[in-house]
Amino acid sequence: MDEIIRAVRDCPSGALSYAIDGREAREQTDYHNTREPVIEVSKDGPYRISGGIALIDGEGNDEHRNQGASLEHYALCRCGHSQNKPFCSGMHWHVDFHDRQSMKFAFDLWSYADVKQHAGAILERLRNGSMPCDGAWSQERVDVFQRWVDSDLSA
Ligand code: FES
Hints:
Strand order of the largest sheet: 3-4-5
Strand content: 5-15%
Number of domains: 2
Bound molecules: FE2/S2 (inorganic) cluster
Shape: elongated
Largest sheet: 3 strands, antiparallel
Order of helices and strands: HEEHEEEHHHH
C-alpha cells in the first residue's frame, strides 16, 4: 500500500488517485495540504505546480479537473501540444519538446544576457501576439514582462 501511495504522491500531473473502501484518499497523497506554493519550470516539460495554487479559467471559475485529480498539485502544458489543455498530457515527449532550443534561431531563452539584449523585440512580439508560438500571452503576463523591462532589466 505504501508503494501505491508513493506512486500517486509522486505523480507530478496529480492525475493519479486511489480510494480506500470506495472513498477517495486524496489527503494522504496531497501532503495534507501542507506544502508551500511552488511553480517549477521542468526541463523540456510542463510547469509543475504544487502547494494548492488555485487554477481558474478566464472567467474566474475553477478550472475543471477529472474526477479524483489533485487540487494540490498538477502539471500545466508548456509545449503547446497537450491533448488535455491546460494540463500536460505527456505529448511533450512525443513532439520532442526542447524549450531551450525553441527560440535558438533568434536567441537563447535561458540566457539572461540574450533575453536582456532582445527584450524590446520580445516585448513587441508579446504585445502583438506573435510570441510565444503556442499562443498569445494574457495582458497581465505581458504587463509583468513590461514591468521587468521598465525596471532596467534587473536580474
Ligand atoms: S508540456 Fe506536457 S503536453 Fe505540453
